[in-house]
Amino acid sequence: MESISFLILEDDQVDAEAIRRAFSTLGISNQLIIVKDGIDALTCLRGSEEQGKLTSPFVIFVDLIMPRMSGLEFLDHLKEIPEAQSAPVFVMSGSSDQDDIFRAYSHDITGYIVKSDPVKSIRKALEILEYKWLLMKP
Known about the structure:
By secondary structure, the chain is α/β, with parallel strands linked by helices. The chain has helices spanning 13-25, 38-46, 71-78, 98-105, 118-136; strands at 5-9, 32-35, 58-62, 89-93, 111-114. The protein starts with a strand and ends with a helix. The model is unreliable at 134-138 (pLDDT under 50).
């Protein structure tokens, strides 16, 4: 099976490093691509002359509040990328506001995780993924 890459949209350097350490702590050595906003993520998914295109399979983690393009705006544009249609998408946000959660789920995300402890958050997302993939097995 191909190695799964993780595309992480996180503009805060401290949070990005905490996420990187969480993956390491959990023993996950898959490729992590951390970008600072939705515009950079779309470029990564579509490809450009300077950088290649991220190929499937991949999982996306999206922060809601980012400069230039918010997480919700990114989710709107994500629908335009055929290769991303089957990608699991998790929103990782500091917000536990019910309106934010509802708006995120209206974009057909796989899960919404409130950032608190990065290790617990990543572990929870992986458990959800494992359960989803078990359900999808023939």
